[in-house]
Amino acid sequence: MIYLDATLLPPREAGVVYTKPWLVELVLDLAGYLPEKCLADMVALEPSAGDGAFLSAMVRRLVDSCERHGTPLNHATSALQAFEIDPEAAKKATGVVRETLISLRVPSATAEKLAQSWIKVRDFLEVSLCFPIADFVIGNPPYIRMEEIPEKKAAMYRNGFSAMRGRADIYVAFYQASLLQLKPGGVCAYICADRWMLNDYGSALREFITTEGYNVRHIIEAHDVQAFESEVSAYPAVTIIAREEQGPVIVSKALPGIETESSLRLMESLGPKLDHNRHLKSARFVDWFHGTEPWPCSSPEALKLLKHLESTCFPLECKTTGTKIGIGVATGADKVFISPNKPDIEPDRILPLALASDLHEGKVKWSGHCMANPWNGSGLVKLDDYPQLRKHLGPHHELLSSRHTAKKDRAENWHKTIDRVNLALVKKHKLYIADIKDRLLPALDTGKTYPQHNLYWITSDIWDLKVLGALLMSAVGEFFIHCYGVRMRGGYLRFQAQYLRRIRVPDPKSISPKLADTLRHAFATQDFKLATQAALDAYQIDKIPT
Question: Residues 423, 375: contact at Cβ < 8 Å?
Fold first, then answer.
């Protein structure tokens, strides 16, 4: 599925990701695109035809349906409507469809006519109609970041589709456009990267789906199986979403070996009782997520535990415990504001700054970095009152004035940092968590430093921070990040505030003094196994699903 013209983007960047045949068949079955139905009287859209992988399988089912129902195939000229923006890819897809029809004993002239009528060299997002015409929308939408799309076209997509927010991938627009095409009861069946289910940029799409009359029927996480013809760094999932009232949701995890399992057997295992299948673990959930909430679909077992913990535990950031989460200071010009040692400025303008590299074995080993702090308790200081600070920042006036944060403010405030410094935070005991790490490893600051922008901080009125630190560093604390967070290349996790706020913790009053001592010891010694066992006891659960 090449989405943008190949002269604009190289093939991989242009969204070329083709789906394996076994998965195509499963998606069609889950969508209900079955020859038992009179498919010639229905409309199926393929928004990004690519090499025709989905089209070929859909054509076979359409021909079978016509034969079963005694419908002449030439009555099905509108039953399939496929779009492909790249002429060469469209030509290839047309050839695949023509050859598929001929292999099914359709006369070559009829095969040529149907193939030409079914495949259109058009941009689906430009021609899609925002009123229902489709019984099915099926396929694998293209993967292209908005910054890789020509500016005018990107602006058109953002103006046309409300779900296209932030740094959304183009497939977000394809989802919304496809859902808008559905008749009542119509089904959108996609195999696509699942990042939109978790990321901020997918929040508007999740809200659209869960508030505008759509039913998330089925999600299959397919991270560990051969979903595509080429190796890609996507995290694919099958989503089956219908235009109907929300009902129970089946969440499945595809396991290696599913590629050789028969589609019939897989569908049988997804019946009312969700029979066991060694290649497809499934669970049914009556209550789905709402609004902008992320959809964590790592595995059915994990989702069950997640929902249990969310219903029985406190949010990490919580008024009851007086626990808050925040991020360190962003300056917009670190090389100007931050020094490896104390700068030659007024002492009350020197802010001891903790960096991510200062976190070691649960402690902050301050490297001596300091920030020239233009803020006091009342707001931005006047440089006339601080001649040494003015001398320190003055040579960089042009650079600092050109920053967005300075341009949007008054000219005399050119020396401000992006974020205001909260001086009260310095003296507070707090946990630091680095933005990017392979593990959730909080470190305790005993009121000595202020965090830089790549550190998140946690303070609490009630929690003993060593006890809380042990809960967070345990497999239970990290479990929430695995469910909600985005794993980056190399296996690293993002510990952003939006994910930290999804963590649930037990009532601190429910933790016995003995168990609290164990947790403190585990944090002090950075004993992961001990912290995990103590955390399991604190949460009153047996284990964490793998």
Answer: yes
